[in-house]
Structure formats: structure tokens, C-alpha cells
Fold this sequence. Notes:
Number of helices: 12
Subcellular location: Cell membrane
InterPro entries: AAA+_ATPase (IPR003593), ABC_Ni/Peptide_Import (IPR050388), ABC_transporter-like_ATP-bd (IPR003439), ABC_transporter-like_CS (IPR017871), Oligopep_ABC_C (IPR013563), P-loop_NTPase (IPR027417)
Protein name: ABC transporter ATP-binding protein
Strand order of the largest sheet: 6-7-8-3-9-10
Helix content: 40-55%
Oligomer: single chain
Keywords: ATP-binding, Cell inner membrane, Cell membrane, Membrane, Nucleotide-binding, Translocase, Transport
Membrane topology: Peripheral membrane protein
Bound molecules: adenosine-5'-triphosphate
Amino acid sequence: MTASTHTEPLVKVTDLAVNLPTGRRSSVDAVTQVSLEIHPGEKVGIIGESGSGKSVTGRAVAGLLPTSPRVKIQGSILVDGEEMVGAPAEAWRQVRTHKVGMIFQDPLTYLNPVMRVGRQVEESIAPRRWKNRDPQVRTQALEFLELAGFPDPPSVARRYPHELSGGMRQRVLIAIAIAKCPRLLIADEPTTALDATVQKRVLETLHNTVEETGTSLILISHDIGVVASMTERIYVMYRGRVVESGTTHQILTAPEHPYTQALLRSVRSLSEPDVELYSIPLELRRQLAMEEAV
Ligand SMILES: Nc1ncnc2c1ncn2[C@@H]1O[C@H](COP(=O)(O)OP(=O)(O)OP(=O)(O)O)[C@@H](O)[C@H]1O
């Protein structure tokens, strides 16, 4: 689904600057002058090398930056029209409960090791009712597990996180995040720790769940191939700034910023063993190959 630019953005970030403490007297400008927007149902990528500010930007939009008074946030983050910079913790909690969900690279950190997976999805659906073992909530939990690509949801629901593979845990985390029915899901390097085939499966799950539920997606990755296969627009970050943005097609076929051009050159270099090209749509891959031949 391509978002209409006529709709009001779900999230609008303007001139965001985040300064984080790094020691007793030192700090770092983690991001500077970052502006971006996400419309309802849109899938947007943020790419850039390690340390470029992708995670800090994602965490800022989810209100998940460290809460120390030494963390300085400036600019504007509008979520559904509401200004969230300087908003109290309770307002952010409301946003995270109803509007913005986030999933990270390491699912074990976020899953409860001593609670069965099904119960964790139930808790996410109904934070107040799940303890009563409400059959309706239980049925919904199985539906979310099915949506996350588990063909036999009851058998997964009975298991504990340590009984699942890394890819399965990541898909459980997607089910838990989607079960809150957020309007925006921010996925920060959700597949980086997984091997290529499992990565593909998890990305398919992510893609299908956001498509089916109409959820907007911000996909954060250093891997341009992963982002290209999943998104309609891309923001390129470098040294804490957005250096370029455009449709995925524009970024891949006519990158303007030298950093984006360098990123793409490294992807095109097939001699690099780590680079995954499988996920760049075939049509764009052909175009890239043709340009390379000129
Ligand atoms: N909690 C923190 N405390 C202090 N500095 C931080 C913290 N988190 C990030 N930074 C710094 O902020 C800058 C941006 O980091 P960020 O994690 O957003 O980069 P990234 O593009 O997501 O990289 P990666 O892919 O490695 O996570 C870096 O200089 C980083 O060292």
C-alpha cells in the first residue's frame, strides 16, 4: 500500500536532536536535525552504518530513550498530532500501549523466560483481563500466533521461550507487538542476529502482519537489501543526520548523496561475501545491474 501524501502523518518528526551522556562530563550528539514522517499504513526504512543514529531515532519515536535528566531531546515528535517531546511518562506509556510498538534484535531480552508464549501474547492483548484466562483472549492469542506464521498455534502457545528457535522467538515477538494493535510498529534490526533463510521467514512474517493489519512500519537496518524488499520509502542516515530520503526506487536507482552511492556500491559488489542481494526486488536488481554495465 502506498500512503497518500494527502493524509495527515501518523508520526511527524521535525528537527529532532538528541544528546546522550557518555561519561560524567562528556556527551554525544547522537542525532541532529532529523526530520521524517510516516503516514498511516506506510512502510518506511531507515538505513545507515553502525552509529549513524538509526536506533536513537527509533527509540525517540517510541519514547524509549534513557530517562536520565542528562538526556537532552529537542525538536518536535508529533504522534497522531500530539506533541511528545517533553510529554510526561504516562503520556508516552499511553502512546506505547495504543499507538507505537517496537521490536528489537534480541527477542530473549524481551520475552519472559518463565511464562508460556501463549500467555505472553494474551497479556499483550488484554493487560487487565488476561489473568482470568478469558477464553476469548486465548482464542485471539492463537489467531495472532497464526498471523505470525505458526501453522499450529496451540503447540507454540504451550511452549516457553527457551524451547523455541531464534527465528520462532522473533516471530513470537512480532505476534506480541501486533497483538496490541499499534498503529505503528518500529522494528530495529529485527533479523540481524538470524541466518539468511530464517531472516527471510521473519521478514515475510513482519511484512504479512503489517499488511494484514494495516499497521505502519519503520524498519531500521544497516542492510539496504532487507529494507529495500520491505519498504516504500527510505531515509538514509549518516553521522546522526538524515542525508537523503526518497522512494525506495529513487534511493536504489538514483541515489544523490555520496554516502548513499557508496552504500549501494558496496551492495552491488558481488565479491563481498556478506552482502545479501536476494531481498532486493528483481526489477530493481536488473536496473542496478544495467547501470553497473554502463
Ligand atoms: N544509551 C546511549 N548512551 C550514550 N550514547 C549512545 C547511547 N545509545 C547510542 N549512543 C550513541 O549515539 C550514536 C547513535 O547510535 P545509534 O545506536 O542510534 O546508531 P545506529 O545507527 O542504530 O547503530 P547500530 O546499528 O550499531 O545500533 C552513537 O554515537 C552511539 O554511540
